[in-house]
Amino acid sequence: MGLVTSTEMFKKAYEGGYAVGAFNVNNMEIIQGIVEAAGEEQAPLILQVSAGARKYANPVYLRKLVEAAIEVSGLDICLHLDHGSDFEICKACVDTGFTSVMIDGSQHPFKENIALTKQVVDYAHDHGVVVEAELGKLAGIEDDIVVNAPNATFTDPDEAVEFVEKSGCDSLAITIGTSHGAFKFKSEPRLDFERLDTITNLLPGYPLVLHGASSVPKEFVDLCNQYGGQIPGAQGVPEEMLRKAAKSGVCKINIDTDLRLAMTASIRKVFVENPGWFDPRQYLAPGRSAIKAMVAHKMKNVLGCSHKR
Ligand code: G3H
Ligand code: 13P
Ligand code: ZN
């Protein structure tokens, strides 16, 4: 048990035709809910920390919480930096015990993205840490970067091959139509599976990553809306599309928005049904249980990674 890289996880996932879930963490209850689900499902696990999460919780707290989760659960966990925007943040994570970092150079021109990624790869590999990179621009919002749909671009398959060869990255996030947040499609959800198959065939055995892969289940949006506030027009990636992607070269599927929805829906319900409650444990515990149920569902029914530890 301990902090591990994703190398073995991806190898097994690729061969087994399933994907490993990478879940965003921001506080203790979120970590506990996810880790409890992974323990019960006997599933491989990646916990990922965004720059926003680092700012919110302080990276030392998050790392120590993940270490505590490993001690309590006896699981192997990959601790990953999500969307590192520059060399410095990746280096800081490598230096403080992360086992995986993402350098997201997707906003830069192709050659600059390669050069930046290679710089991170050289440093990370020297320290036994693996690197995820991104090619193509996902629509949506992450931290301070906003990409509007017209500026989103899908990953070019030939560029993907050149990118992997020249940068040496261990896994590659590609864009085939998913996006961050709760509003992913204006009309019918569509992913470019032809492109995914082409990239998979050009890079046999190589792990691909799908960001923006929440499904935004209607029941949770309805629950949030029923108990106050409105989340209009929410639309996610249908779960059957994720199951299909997991059977190709996609070995890592990122989920954050669905956890937010599940936790918030359950907490809103507690507040509405129990207006007299004010002990934080009375609403954080149901929030934690909602996270656990959502993650267990993803592992069992969507990613196919239950019992693959
Ligand atoms: O890709 C973005 C993740 O959902 C993290 O979101 O940057 O608000 O922590 P955040
Ligand atoms: P969602 O917003 O679809 O959950 O995607 C999360 C993500 O890609 C984190 O990097
Ligand atoms: Zn992402």
From TrEMBL:
SUPFAM superfamilies: Aldolase. InterPro entries: Aldolase_TIM, Class_II_FBP_aldolase, FBA_II, Fruc_bis_ald_class-2. One of its GO terms (molecular function) is fructose-bisphosphate aldolase activity. It comes from the Bacteria. Pfam families: F_bP_aldolase. Its EC number is 4.1.2.13. Its cofactor is Zn(2+). Signal peptide: none annotated. Keywords: Lyase, Metal-binding, Zinc. The keyword Lyase applies. This is Class II fructose-1,6-bisphosphate aldolase. It comes from Acetobacterium tundrae.
